Amino acid sequence: MKKLLTMTTAAVALMVAGQVASAGPNTVAGPGADPSCFTPVSDDTTYFQWPAREGPYKIALVNGFIANDWRVQMIAVAKAYAAQPEVAAEIEEFKVVSVGEDIAAQIAAANNFIDQGFDAIIINANNTRAFGSVVRKANEADVVVLSFDNVIDDPNQIAINVDQKGLGMSAGKFLLEQSGDGPAKFLHVRGPAGQPVDIARNEGFLEVIKESGRDIEVVDVVGNWAPGDGQKVTADAIAAGGIFDGIYVQGGSQGVATAMLDSGAFKAPISGETENAFRQLCNSAGLACQSGGTGPAQSSVTIKTAIAALKGEVVPSGIALPTSISYSPFKEGVEMFPKLPGSFFAGNNFEACNIGFTAEEIASQTGENN
Q1: Which domain holds residue 54?
Q2: Which Pfam families did the record assign (predicted)?
Q3: Residue pLDDT, tens place only, 94-123
């Protein structure tokens, strides 16, 4: 009897292990659905397929850091996309929660949506390596997990992003080209400490500078991707005697440009994000500017991907979004918009994904939890 019980327990353990192993997506051969939109990161990208389920679907967006205009617009665009009639027909409920920079709170929020029976969880992660348990729990529950912007470092979910390191490299190349051949001093206005996007962009920026072989001093300050914070730390750096040959600002670019212009100490080339006010300042002040970044509408591409996965379509595990980079002077009505708010970020349309918005659609939404 004891031997029989032992064998039965072992058999049950094997069955449970098999069930866990089979949970989550199947790895299948590509190509996937809608390849012009869901473009794989590389030729080696794996493809996923979940069992098709009947809609409409319950989808949650679990955001972390919120205290800047990009995050607010990212959420507003996500809501606007979910409200478009053809998308709304696919969605039973779309929930948004932002938790600030608390990693544990973001993990708890994601787990809570899994427990509530949501079909897909979208995450802009506070920490790339902290969500392995969330992905495992979701896969065991057949919940689709997707991450974007600050993507999760786990191969068992869908990651949607642009080349963040490449953006830092582009900024470094621009400032090196604009500052001549000799020694130079650059100001780097960074994002919140520990944020994956900040780390990747800084890595790319410093890599290009090191490879140049030039004598470049880089002064780092933390502007939190916010115009007010960026303006203050830039003004403080200049007041401390800083005369810079170039400035790289990851976000809050208009605040940094304003601080430089208000100081009257120098005019340096600036590589910044895609804020409308930044581009307006570059034009009006005749600055040499590079403006590039990640459009807030990548949240809408992630929703589109979630719906495709829930329908059982084949999708890449890693999806590459295009990066938009423009240079001053910026074309009015195309790259810079005088009638739109200064906080507006360009890059909200992804034509390859048939995703687009009017300014009114975005303005009608907020970045608040719902």
Answers
A1: 26-161+296-321
A2: Peripla_BP_4
A3: 999 999 999 999 999 999 999 999 999 999
